[in-house]
Specification:
The protein is mostly helical. Helix content is 77%, strand content 0%. Helix 8 packs antiparallel against helix 9, helix 10 runs antiparallel to helix 14 and helix 10 packs antiparallel against helix 16. The protein starts with 8 loop residues before the first helix and ends in a 5-residue tail after the last helix.
Length: 464
């Protein structure tokens, strides 16, 4: 088959399927923030329990994203995407029926595993099936629409929580996933790369143990867990280095200063984002008396900005390169978080919340699409799944660490938000120092872009 053009009917179906699938995973990463006060009341969860409800999902999602990208490269990106979709839905049902905090934490960990198969597969599919000159547009649309799904989470979740129950925020995934599965089977072609990275069970075990132990150490202030986590992460690096080209994460990708720098920028920006949204959702409801719906609605301007501008920013990044936008974006986003740090009882929404949400939305819109394009442009075609998996893992680890660390810092909400703002702005400095001024579009042949599977039943598509 010929590579797909962005503006074609086939291209629109691919974007819609990948956005909906990854959007479900992203939505559950944000919607739970608004539900935390209701979950705490219903399940009698303390702050530690609430941290684990968020971080159990982020631990497995972060740790297994690389595995998800590798499985997609080897066995078919569409196949692994569909398996992840089914797993995610099953885990969502368990979340919606959870009778206790412990059960919800366990179900959230299972949800993260499904998300780890969904997210890298969606981005790798886009990079594999579109013609080279249209990839930035497709990635920009994916980034913006997936970001909209994340931002819609608090609004939709707030309505469902106030109208029915927090449990519905998980059960709603079932019809959404059904629609995504239909679109994927009917309209998304299968791609794979049998010559890509190899499965690495030891590496997966090391990184999973390392992240889980570090999260436990930060939340429970356990020195022993911190030592275990540090040793496990060090062992992961040693294992990957010894495996060379057979590694799950080939360390040669870090020879590119752009790949390394873009991922450091991701770490900074998403640490600011994850910590700020966790604290803001609790602060609006517990300190200012917002309902779940009001807290979710307060973030709608962020959604509108992402929806209207992300695809255009992706196209602009294609013309001017990602460096300038990736520098300005985190600085603007950091300013937005600093403005949100002024939110306190007695101030109105227009005076305190809205300016910060607007500025933060502009900053994230300028950042996300160029950042994703820069990461993929720095990786070779054989490692698209691994590259997108690693970048998404970095983003989730950033949120995990922020949620684990920020509540324990003294000084209250305002200080924590200022710390988030400074970390986010630091990402812009890193981008300026490491990202190339322009990322040229390579004249890639069809054989290099597509790796069609060799099984007819999987290669068939109605996209044409």
């Amino acid at each position: 088959m010929e590579p797909i053009r962005y503006g074609s009917a086939a291209g629109r179906w691919v974007v819609a399927a990948t956005v909906l699938g990854s959007g479900i995973a992203f939505l559950d990463g944000t919607v739970v923030n608004v539900a935390l006060p209701a979950i705490a009341r219903d399940l009698h969860a303390d702050v530690r329990g609430l941290q684990w409800i968020l971080d159990a999902y982020l631990v497995t999602l972060s740790a297994l994203l690389l595995l998800g990208g590798t499985l997609g490269d080897l066995y078919g990106r569409r196949r692994v995407f569909l398996i992840g979709l089914g797993w995610f839905v099953a885990a969502s049902l368990l979340c919606g029926l959870a009778p206790s905090t412990g059960a919800l934490v366990a179900a959230r960990a299972l949800q993260g595993l499904g998300g780890a198969l969904l997210v890298p597969g969606s981005l790798a599919l886009l990079s594999a099936v579109f013609v080279p000159e249209d990839r930035s547009k497709a990635v920009g649309a994916w980034s913006g629409l997936a970001g909209v799904a994340s931002a819609l989470g608090p609004f939709v979740g707030g309505y469902l929580i106030d109208a029915v129950s927090w449990r519905l925020i998980f059960l709603i995934n079932v019809p959404l996933a059904a629609g995504c599965a239909w679109m994927t089977v009917r309209h998304v072609p299968e791609t794979r790369d049998p010559a890509g990275s190899r499965l690495d069970g030891i590496g997966v075990g090391c990184v999973t143990l390392g992240l889980a132990a570090l999260a436990y150490a930060l939340i429970d202030k356990s020195v022993a867990a911190g030592v275990v986590g540090g040793l496990a992460m060090a062992a992961f690096v040693v294992v990957e280095r010894r495996r060379g080209d057979k590694a799950m994460l080939p360390l040669t990708v870090f020879r590119s200063s752009q790949f390394t720098g873009a991922n450091l920028t991701t770490l900074a920006v998403y640490a600011g984002l994850g910590g700020a949204f966790f604290l803001l959702s609790l602060h609006l409801q517990n300190a200012l008396g917002y309902s779940a719906l009001e807290a979710g609605t307060s973030l709608l301007p962020f959604t509108v900005i992402m929806l209207l501008a992300s695809a255009r920013v992706g196209a602009l990044a294609q013309r001017v390169g990602p460096r300038l936008l990736m520098t300005i974006g985190p600085l603007v986003a950091g300013l937005g978080l600093a403005l949100l740090g002024r939110v306190r009882p007695g101030l109105g929404y227009v005076d305190a919340v809205l300016p910060g949400v607007l500025v933060f939305g502009v900053g994230m819109t300028l950042t996300v699409a160029p950042l994703t394009s820069a990461v993929l442009a720095a990786a070779d075609q054989r490692h698209l799944g691994v590259a997108s998996g690693f970048n998404n893992a970095v983003a989730r680890v950033a949120g995990l660490l922020a949620v684990a660390v920020l509540p324990g810092l003294g000084g209250g909400f305002g200080r924590a938000m200022r710390i988030s703002a400074a970390v986010c702005a630091l990402g812009g400095v890193v981008a300026w120092l490491t990202v190339r001024r322009a990322v040229p579009v390579e004249a890639t042949t069809q054989a290099a872009v597509l790796h069609p599977c060799h099984e007819p039943c999987l290669a068939e598509t109605d996209a044409a």
